[in-house]
Design a protein that fits this description.
The protein has a domain at 219-440. Strand 6, helix 5 (189-200) and strand 7 (207-211) form a beta-alpha-beta unit. The protein is globular, with a radius of gyration of 24 Å. It has helices spanning 16-21, 104-108, 111-119, 150-163, 189-200, 226-231, 234-252, 256-265, 274-281, 309-317, 324-327, 345-356, 377-381, 387-399, 420-430, 450-453, 516-539, and strands spanning 7-8, 50-55, 72-80, 90-94, 122-126, 182-187, 207-211, 218-220, 290-291, 400-402, 465-470, 493-496. It contains 17 helices and twelve strands. The strands form three sheets. Strands 2-3-5-4-6-7-11-12 form an eight-stranded mixed beta sheet, with helices on both faces. The two termini are 47 Å apart. The protein is α/β, with parallel strands linked by helices. Helix 10 runs antiparallel to helix 12. The chain is 31% helix and 10% strand. It binds 2-acetamido-2-deoxy-beta-D-glucopyranose (8 copies). The site of one 2-acetamido-2-deoxy-beta-D-glucopyranose has 2 residues, from loops.
């Protein structure tokens, strides 16, 4: 799929700055500038890029990474010392599945700004290997992707914390993790990497806040849709459920003429594979792996980052006062459903035509990989470096969570033709075994979940590791506060009422003016960090020089 505006969904595409990273808007604001010293609320508008010589292969003895290499790559990082005072901690913001630039807002106005201000800390963003410009190789064949694993990524964090020399910071001569408390923060995949880092490098890294951390790998993830099913406007949700039921009934009956008519109502008559059709009409809700428009996941409490498309979509589905050429469509397929209308279908189809199908430059391209067909194997196999490709590789090999239709006998927001095989074929096409490292190819049976869950899965824990989640986040069920996790209570956990995906990472340079539940979350995060810094003083870590 290669529509210009595709936003990788998954864990990936969540925050608006991330979305920007995948659209043409990105290039507008990225000219690096030296960090500006700032007073009061004046914040740097951009940051100068620095590069760290990072090992490509941290595990020279592991068969998993053969053939090995001693080479390094340039890993990009940014830092903000506008609040730094000697003795302050280092906050390492984990880059995750996007460029480091698209994380700047966390230093400027978000959670790292809040924590730096509270503790005189230094804020650092480290770009994830295989994202942004931090690629070890100039292409991403399956062989070249073999070093893109979570254990290598978290080893980057540890190696960086042990060896980095920050340039030009007054009083910051040795800010490595043996002399200074390092507190990690990450949201989404980066949240999981934060948690895994704390588990694996507990003696080195002092603390961590894992936000909406997707700590649990699972093959299929129908639960992604549960918060939308539960918290979305129920008249809209119910209409979509019923439309999907009717569509699936036609598929079950193998009613080709009716299915063709249905596709045409959406302007997708040429799209051959019924799963591609189901995928395309699911975009306003959230299609598997990637989607070109904003969804529930892109809702945000900060107006500047909020993308309320989902509610506009629902307003179309429920708009009974739309012109009759739209509402009449509700009855266009009634003859196939015992005279029953498909209530809301006209508004649904019109919305998809206007907002999604209109992005395809020509009708002749509807059934190609330039627009809505995902069935072109050679297109998937293109080894060009991209964040989307890297993310898909990680999903295919380790983390899974393929979005699929709901469990049988439950209402579904996407057609039941969307099952594991649909995403799995992309994995098989995209990453065929290479000549050097055939072990790096994903298994056709699905990701190796053990490699991801070995840090503890939903039961993961470490000293000074805190978890914060959003109650109505689509990723919640693979996070600490999953409905599948054992019930736990304690000071290092927080579930924000009504919140979405790592909503605590955003800020407005005034904690007191935030909505109550966000403010409470930020105050809790400040207290967590202050508590951990007191523990550092008590344990007199400055005397420790080596880590075993
Ligand atoms: C990496 O360096 C070590 C130490 O010099 C050496 O033993 C090893 O063979 C090198 N590995 C590769 C893949 O070149
Ligand atoms: C990619 O990298 C290799 C080795 O580092 C180099 O020989 C080759 O010219 C590069 N290709 C491009 C297109 O930059
Ligand atoms: C450090 O500061 C000096 C003087 O301002 C400047 O010339 C130099 O480029 C800076 N070094 C880095 C790595 O930013
Ligand atoms: C339908 O969606 C469009 C595009 O987002 C939006 O501009 C419009 O307001 C929506 N219609 C209704 C009735 O809300
Ligand atoms: C649609 O695209 C698929 C995948 O490229 C192809 O196999 C199929 O023949 C195409 N169908 C039509 C009607 O063009
Ligand atoms: C399939 O993908 C290849 C490689 O990206 C591209 O050249 C070709 O045009 C695509 N064909 C269709 C029908 O999408
Ligand atoms: C939650 O547990 C149920 C029952 O064991 C299981 O079927 C489901 O896949 C689990 N969900 C996730 C997201 O792991
Ligand atoms: C910084 O923290 C102080 C309290 O320590 C607070 O009064 C001030 O509003 C904060 N400023 C910003 C920009 O967050």
């Amino acid at each position: 799929m290669s529509l210009k505006l595709i936003v990788l969904v998954a864990i990936l595409l969540t925050i608006l700055p991330t979305i920007h990273a995948f659209t043409s808007r990105t290039s507008l604001s990225l000219r690096p500038r030296q960090v500006a010293s700032s007073t009061s609320n004046e914040r740097p508008r951009s940051y100068k890029a620095y590069y760290f010589e990072q090992l490509i292969d941290h595990f020279p003895d592991s068969d998993r990474y053969a053939p090995h290499t001693n080479a390094t790559f340039s890993q990009k990082f940014f830092f903000d010392d506008t609040y730094y005072k000697p003795g302050g901690p280092v906050f390492l913001y984990i880059g995750g599945e996007t460029s480091a630039e698209s994380r700047w807002s966390n230093l400027q106005t978000g959670i790292i700004q809040i924590l730096m201000n509270a503790t005189n800390g230094l804020g650092v963003i480290l770009e994830n290997r295989y994202y942004g410009t931090s690629y070890p190789y100039n292409a991403s064949t399956t062989d070249e992707l073999r070093f893109l694993t979570n254990e290598q990524t978290i080893a980057d964090n540890a190696y960086f914390a042990q060896n980095i020399q920050f340039p030009n910071i007054t009083g910051g001569q040795d800010l490595t993790a043996s002399a200074t408390p390092w507190i990690l923060y990450g949201g989404s995949l980066a949240g999981a990497e934060t948690a895994f880092s704390l588990v694996e490098y507990e003696g080195l890294l002092w603390g961590g806040i894992a936000s909406s951390a997707v700590i649990h790998a699972t093959h299929g993830y129908p639960e992604w849709y549960n918060p939308i099913q539960k918290f979305g406007p129920q008249d809209c949700i119910w209409r979509i459920n019923k439309i999907i039921d009717k569509m699936d009934q036609l598929v079950e009956e193998n009613n080709e003429p009716a299915i063709q008519k249905l596709k045409e109502l959406f302007g997708l008559g040429a799209l051959e594979d019924i799963r591609d059709f189901a995928y395309t009409i699911a975009f306003p809700i959230g299609g598997p792996d990637s989607y070109p428009t904003n969804t529930w996941q892109e809702l945000n409490w900060v107006p500047a980052y909020d993308a309320p498309d989902f509610f506009q979509f629902c307003n179309n589905v429920t708009d009974d006062s739309a012109p009759t050429d739209i509402t009449d469509v509700d009855r266009a397929l009634s003859e196939y459903t015992h005279g029953e209308p498909w209530t809301g279908l006209g508004g649904y189809a019109k919305y998809v035509k206007d907002v999604v199908v209109s992005q395809c430059p020509s009708e002749d391209l509807i059934n190609t990989s330039a627009c809505f067909s995902t069935q072109n194997a050679s297109n998937w196999a293109e080894p060009k470096n991209s964040g989307g490709r890297s993310y898909t590789y990680s999903s295919c090999t380790e983390s899974g969570a393929y979005q699929v239709a709901n469990y049988p006998n439950k209402p579904s927001l996407i057609s039941r033709v969307i099952q594991l095989d649909y995403t799995q074929q992309w994995c098989n096409w995209a990453f065929p075994p290479g000549p050097l490292a055939p072990q790096a190819a994903p298994s056709p049976n699905g990701p190796n979940l053990k490699r991801y869950n070995k840090y503890g899965g939903l039961e993961i824990s470490a000293r000074r590791l805190a978890f914060i989640d959003g109650e109505s986040d689509v990723w919640r069920d693979v996070c600490f506060h999953s409905h599948n996790a054992t019930e736990r209570y304690g000071p290092n956990q927080m579930l924000i009422t009504g919140a979405g995906h790592h909503w605590d990472s955003y800020g407005i340079l005034n904690v007191d003016a935030e909505p109550d539940f966000i403010k409470a979350a930020h105050q809790w995060e400040i207290r967590r960090v202050e508590t951990w810094l007191k523990e550092w003083e008590l344990e007199d870590r400055r005397k420790v020089t080596t880590i075993n």
